[in-house]
């Protein structure tokens, strides 16, 4: 039985008069019951041959794009490759447009008023069954050459913030015997956020790779990634542990 040994960081919200704050504890994760979960990681525009696009219109500021590119290229992809090397299954959970009237849903209305997009067109794909999903040529959910799923990876389509809502994700994890999720992706305050909450509620152990995620930053926050840092701390006291991609890669290489 192979174990991934890394240090998990968490945050202590006690005592009430002065929080103790950050602490770390050793984590020993069985590779047979651990999966690498990538939520809405596309990377389109991060390679020279790619047409630039973004997972979220709200992240289309140049500074946000560059920050996301650095995260995907220098942290997510190396950590994902390390998982593959030691047999930890890689699972992609990505946005889609099933033919269920998404434009008229509350999510669709929210996307329209907050992001100026029509969900069905935005999430359309040219490699789907048009009887079940909206067939189209949107680049919003296409993959960069850097982030394309490999033949042995798993792929789950979602149509809500959480990757567990009305999807096959929980069934997949149970079939594989997964107990622990190494989580990365976007956005840390939206889809990754809700997916991790549901994972915890379903009794999965959650470990966020904190340099492999980013929240939707407003223009006056993006340089410091202040909201992202706050959401990392939220994860550490409300959902699970965090570690770095370097921690994870080192643990994989030790095997």
Layout of strands and helices, then pairs:
Elements: E1 3-12, E2 21-30, E3 34-39, H1 62-85, E4 90-95, H2 106-115, H3 119-122, E5 154-158, H4 169-176, E6 180-186, H5 191-201, E7 205-214, H6 226-238, E8 241-243, H7 245-253
Parallel strand pairs: 3-4, 3-6, 4-5, 6-7, 7-8
Antiparallel strand pairs: 1-2
Helix pairs in contact: 1-7
Give a brief rundown of this model.
This protein has helices spanning 62-85, 106-115, 119-122, 169-176, 191-201, 226-238, 245-253; strands at residues 3-12, 21-30, 34-39, 90-95, 154-158, 180-186, 205-214, 241-243. With 255 residues, it is an alpha/beta fold. The strands form two sheets. A six-stranded parallel beta sheet has the order 5-4-3-6-7-8.
